[in-house]
Fold this sequence. Notes:
Helices cover 74% and strands 0% of the residues. It is elongated. It has helices at residues 6-37, 47-73, 85-109.
Amino acid sequence: MGNSYSQYFLLVGVIALVSPVVASACAVVFYARHCNAFPNAEDRISLLAYVLVLLVCAVIAFFFGLEYGIRWACSSPSGGNLCGLAGFFMSGPIAAALAIFFAAAVMTFSRRGQ
């Protein structure tokens, strides 16, 4: 525990592990609200389109988070040879979870046809 970042490493790791699950649960709740707001099937977004949009947003955000995490972790000379894993296991999943949450919220709370 000599490094001041080590206390935050575990916290960010847990957040990165839990955030995609929480974002997916929020997306399910948001879609249920969307279906309740639009009882007519012709007026609402189909489940397939909803899932595909969330998947595309999550993949794009994951790669941006991956790029950011690798640049951040490998920017110091003491980064080591495994510094790139921070992008894969921390910033990438967090960015994907944020994209899922915000895309689901936008699709749920934007009212089509009004």
